[in-house]
Amino acid sequence: MNKIKSTIFLSWLPYLVFFAGSFIYFAFIANYILFYQEKASLFIFSFDFFRENLHQPGGLLIWLGKLFSTFFYWPPAGAMIISAVIILIVFTISKIIANLTGRNAKFIPFLIGAALFYLQTDYHFLFFNNIGLLLQLVLFYLAIKYLAFYKGWVPLMISPLWYFATGGFAWGFSLLITFYFVFNKEYKGWIRIIALWSLNFFIFWLSKEFLFFQSGKTLLTFPYSNLYTGSQHILFLSIAGILSILPLRSGIRLRLPEKLRVSDFTVNIILTILSVIILTLIGIRQFDNKSKKYFHVEKLFYQNKFDEVIAYNSSNPPTNSLTIFLNNIALCEQDKLDDLLFHFPQSQDGKTLFLKWNMVEEILKRGGYFYYTIGMINEAHRWAFENMVMRGHSPEGLKMLIKTDLINGNNDVAARYISILKKTLFYRKEAKAFEKLLFNDAAFNNNRELGKKRQTRIENDFFSITDDPYLNVEMILASDSLNKKAFEYRMAFMLLKKNYEIIGHELPKFERFGFTRLPVHIEEAAIALSVSNRDKLPDMGNLMISKNTELRWNQYLSVLQQYNNDLRSAEPALKRQFGDTFWYYVFYK
Q: What is the DSSP-derived secondary structure letter of residue 152?
């Protein structure tokens, strides 16, 4: 009995180790993949949502992908789902080969599993792709296992329904069945092959001409897309092609010499060791620390943990322009933009301050947060709405639509969006919190975020200029002269442009905007201005340069003098001590 249990355990050991390795990687190391995919779409528990996803063949597969992806909200749950699907594909391939050849085969299935693990380590590779492959393999295995049912005609009868359910992935099942009949001697394969493909072409023609208003290419391939495979379409199509010709394995008879044959025990041990090695190597190669850092920042940003965003980027200097863009918003929300701007890398043309209108998903779903911060609520709503039209609902996009409609007093519209959010699994609590603000001005005004946003929103609406976002800041200040955050962004842009003239002209206005002291970088710019004005400081109203900034300026000059005022020689020392100042930026950027 113990020997039998030991044998069973060993036969399952490679699967268990592969599953465990995959789970650990996605749950604890590369969980940014799960974060991205969960935020990319929103599963809504309603019949209308289900029906919306059936507008074309393959829509059900997208619906399943969104259903499973909603559990990616919890990384361990998401990692378990991803790992389970991959290992089920491996197991199903093994069972198919055993059915076709009468012999166990594990090396080929595990190699394919490793390739699928590799694909999934790219956060752009959407989960429904693996679900699509698994469904084709499972249906094929059931078809050949119970082929005698209705004399082998069942696969043909269900192929139209299967095409409507899984779209372009269904061609994989048709190819599997076709190759199976080619090598099967018990059934009249050619009759079924001709019938199968005649039916397939008829269904395709019917769909194109009468049922769905889609192009022929879309009907052939959807939901497969280069966009949803993370630009790994060659590898993915290669795997799909290999899986489609699995029945060829039954026609290949390999007989190894007795000396080269190894026991099942040895095979299982080798596969277990290989699984550990291969998954480790793939994980190391594919792990993207830059993406992990960015998505951690984005997660904190969505939670309005702006101080934590700033602290994290301070200890992990960002190189991603989107990270810096979000960090600048966090700085502005905490009234620190002109104090800490040069503590982080900046683009001289302002691209880290604002994003130009672009239909690219990465830009469209994030650019509106700048307008939300400076009070252009209508423009923030437009960005979120356009992203929804193009990509469908996403958690943060839907929340932005709710917030902007609540701020603008469009309670009826906000209520419709809230009802959608309430039908989700992990955002019901937030939806109920929003619901309490509907038609309740007292509760709304007491809301720490939204009450303040309504007070500072732009009252005089105007057509935004998305090709040059800075002009919107100028237009805001022309019509709303006390918009503090727009003013902070304007001064930050002037600092990046090294525009001393405007900085000097605007210095007396800081007090009017509610500043009790000048921001650090503005102080640095004022001192730099005094150098060109015979050490005479420009007019700053009642605000003064802090003693600390004066001390640092003297230290800056002292270091420069140590190198005989040679800027090139002094650069390393100045960067080490003053790399986060406007002075260093002026001389070296």
A: G
Residue 229, strand partner residues: 125
Does residue 420 contact residue 398 with C-beta atoms inside 8 Å? yes
Phi, psi of 212 (to 5 degrees): -130, 135
Rounded distance, CA 388 to CA 188, Å? 51
User: Does 461 score more than 60 pLDDT?
Assistant: yes
Q: Tokens for 145?
A: 């296992």
Going by the DSSP 8-state scheme, the letter that residue 538 receives in this structure is: P
Residue with tokens 């060659």: 234
125 by DSSP, 3-state: which? strand
- pLDDT at residue 250 is higher than 70: no
- The model's pTM: 0.93
Summarize pLDDT for 420-456 with one digit per residue, the tens. Answer: 999 999 999 999 999 999 999 999 999 999 999 999 8
Q: What string of DSSP letters covers 189-240? A: HHHHHHHHHHHHHHHHHHIIIII----HHHHHHTT--GGGBTT-HHHHHHHH
**10-25, pLDDT tens digit by residue?**
889 999 999 999 999 9
* Confidence at residue 409, expressed as pLDDT on a 0 to 100 scale: 95
- Token duo for residue 348: 């001289």
Residue 82 has pLDDT above 70, yes or no: yes
CA separation for the pair 420, 290 (Å, rounded):
34
* Token pair listed for 189: 């394969």
Sign of CA dihedral 308, 310, 313, 315: negative
Helical H segments across 436-546, by residue range: 441-446, 450-456, 469-479, 484-497, 500-506, 520-531
Gap between the Cα atoms of 309 and 16, Å rounded: 38
| CA geometry: angle 528, 529, 533, nearest 5 deg | 120
What's the average model confidence in pLDDT over 111-127?
A: 97
How far apart are the C-alpha atoms of 330 and 297, rounded to whole Å? 10
- What is the chain's alpha carbon radius of gyration, rounded to the nearest angstrom? 31
pLDDT, tens digit, 9 for 90 and up, residues 408-421: 999 999 999 999 99
